[in-house]
């Protein structure tokens, strides 16, 4: 952990105690490095004993709380560092490049990822006082300061991993409180805006879901704008404000990441994978794949398999 984080935590003993217990409980509940879905629906535990290379992937709406170590997320040209002082919120599905930048066998990177439940967010927003604030089309990913009250709710949730009979009843309550702490915390307005069914954030989210559903098809901006109830100019403006990319760039990243999954997990050849995700030109696929992942498809996938082995 960097010196600034250590100094801040040392000055806030309540955070230090909570994070120490969380680190111990996460370490006891994961069999090794990697992402582990927990018995509590919507909660995953992550552990890494070493730093990583940048890895492009799709982040789904979630709250990520780091307990130990440090990670960075890259969205376009923007970099978001999250650590025990700052949690990450992703309010829409986004192609993000993640990289663990602080981890060791002695002090592994430990993180909790909690799915955002739109139904819970919507119900809570109805109960909260109306907000006059506006995020003015800000990013669909942001950092906020970790508080003792948020960590308290997270800790109570993780403790339930040791009492499955209680988790069925109490875990939904703890998850609901975590949603509440995020909604009422720093920059929580960005999450609130997703509940405005006719607001700009919800329209962008609708466009994202349509692109995810039809990523292998030719993207017709006019049809996407009409389905999202926006003009083409408004769609471009709002979409780029939320995701740091145009709809076409967003689709391209989804295609390349799905092609990578097909090759790495399903063993599909590069030419077949490129065709399945919508590319007509193998050479264009190879160029764009190399630009995103740093190597041609065959070489990059072989390297990843070698690292996994």
UniProtKB/TrEMBL annotation:
InterPro entries: Homeodomain-like_sf (IPR009057), HTH_AraC (IPR018060), Tscrpt_reg_HTH_AraC_N (IPR009594). Keywords: Transcription, Transcription regulation. Gene3D superfamilies: Homeodomain-like. Transmembrane segments: none annotated. It comes from the Bacteria. Residues 205-303 form the HTH araC/xylS-type domain. The keyword Transcription applies. This is AraC family transcriptional regulator. It comes from Lysobacter stagni.
């Amino acid at each position: 952990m960097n010196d600034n984080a250590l100094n801040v935590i040392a000055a806030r003993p309540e955070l230090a105690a909570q994070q120490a217990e969380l680190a111990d409980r996460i370490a006891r509940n994961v069999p090794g490095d990697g992402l582990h879905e927990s018995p509590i629906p919507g909660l995953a535990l992550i552990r890494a004993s070493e730093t990583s290379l940048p890895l492009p992937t799709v982040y789904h709406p979630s709250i990520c709380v780091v307990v130990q170590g440090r990670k960075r997320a890259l969205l376009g040209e923007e970099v978001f560092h999250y650590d025990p002082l700052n949690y990450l919120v992703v309010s829409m599905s986004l192609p993000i490049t993640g990289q663990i930048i602080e981890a060791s066998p002695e002090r592994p990177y430990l993180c909790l990822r909690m799915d955002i439940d739109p139904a819970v967010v919507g119900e809570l927003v109805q109960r909260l006082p109306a907000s006059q604030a506006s995020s003015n089309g800000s990013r669909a990913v942001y950092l906020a300061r970790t508080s003792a009250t948020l960590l308290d709710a997270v800790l109570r949730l993780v403790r339930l991993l040791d009492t499955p009979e209680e988790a069925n009843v109490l875990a939904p309550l703890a998850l609901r409180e975590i949603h509440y702490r995020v909604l009422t915390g720093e920059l929580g307005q960005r999450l609130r805006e997703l509940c405005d069914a006719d607001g700009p954030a919800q329209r962008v989210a609708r466009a994202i879901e349509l692109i995810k559903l039809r990523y292998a098809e030719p993207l017709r901006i006019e049809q996407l704008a009409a389905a999202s109830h926006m003009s083409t100019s408004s769609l471009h403006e709002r979409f780029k404000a939320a995701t740091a990319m145009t709809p076409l760039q967003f689709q391209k990243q989804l295609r390349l990441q799905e092609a990578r999954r097909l090759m790495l997990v399903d063993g599909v050849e590069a030419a077949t994978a490129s065709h399945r995700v919508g590319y007509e030109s193998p050479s264009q696929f190879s160029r764009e794949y190399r630009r995103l992942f740093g190597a041609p498809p065959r070489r990059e996938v072989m390297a990843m398999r070698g690292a996994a082995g």
